[in-house]
Amino acid sequence: MAVDQAKIREHIRGILEAIGEDPDREGLVETPDRVARMYSEIFEGIGYTNDEIANMFNKTFDAPVNNDMVMVKDIEIFSYCEHHMALMYDMKVAVAYIPRDRVIGLSKIARIADMVGKRLQLQERIGSDIAEIMEKATLSPDIAVIIRGKHSCMTARGIKNVPSVTMTTTFRGAFADSQSLQDRVLRLVELKGDRDE
C-alpha cells in the first residue's frame, strides 16, 4: 500500500495549527508537502511484507565448499519508534550467517536492513525481521543480527539521557545453540580499525 500523501498533508497542516503555528506563513507553506514526500521515503518498508522483501533481495550464488560464517557489520540505518514516532539513529547493524548451498550478494544484506528500518519499529523487531528475511533469502537457518542504536525518545525527551545506547541481539539456528558462535560474532562486532581487516 502506498503512503497516502494527501492525507498526510492534511494532518500535518492540522498538527502545525495544533501546536500554535501558522501553516500559511512563508517557512511553513510547503511543509505539509515536504513531510508527505519524506514519509513516502522513510516509511517505504511498511508497504512490504517480510516475504516480499526476501523476494526483492534474494539474489544468491553457489556457496564455497567451506561454508564458514559470513558477516557484514557497521550497516548504518535509521528508523522511527512506533511509540513516539521518534527517530532511532546512529544505528549500526551487524548481520552474520552460515551459508548452506547458497550465499547472498553482500549489498543485499544492507538493503534488507535498510528496508526493515523503513517502518514504524522497535529495535528488537528490527533484528527479528532482518533474521527472518535473511533466513528466507539465503535458505540458511543460522542467522545472527546485532544492533546498536540511539533513541531520541530517550535522548531528546523524557529522561534526556544523551549517551545511552541500546543494544539488541537476535540469534537463530546454530547461533542460538552455540555460546562460542555468539561470543565469536560479538567479538567481531566490537573489533575496530586494522584488527578487523
Number of strands: 7
Low-confidence stretches: none
Alpha-carbon distance between the termini? 42 Å
Task: Provide a count of the helices.
Answer: 8
**Going across the major beta sheet, what is the strand order?**
5-2-3-6-7
Radius of gyration: 19 Å
Shape: elongated
Return the string of H and E elements: HHHEEEEHEHEHEHH
Structural class designation: alpha+beta
Largest sheet: 5 strands, mixed
- Average pLDDT number: 94
Report the portion of residues in β strands: 15-25%
Query: Helicity range of the residues?
Result: 40-55%
Can you describe what's shown?
With 197 residues, this protein is an alpha+beta fold. It is 41% helix and 23% strand. A 5-stranded mixed beta sheet has the order 5-2-3-6-7, with helices on both faces. A two-stranded antiparallel ribbon has the order 1-4. A hairpin with a 5-residue loop joins strand 2 (70-81) and strand 3 (87-97). The mean pLDDT is 94.
Can you summarize this structure?
The protein is an alpha+beta fold and 197 residues long. It has 8 helices and 7 strands; from the N terminus they run αααββββαβαβαβαα. The relative contact order is 0.14.
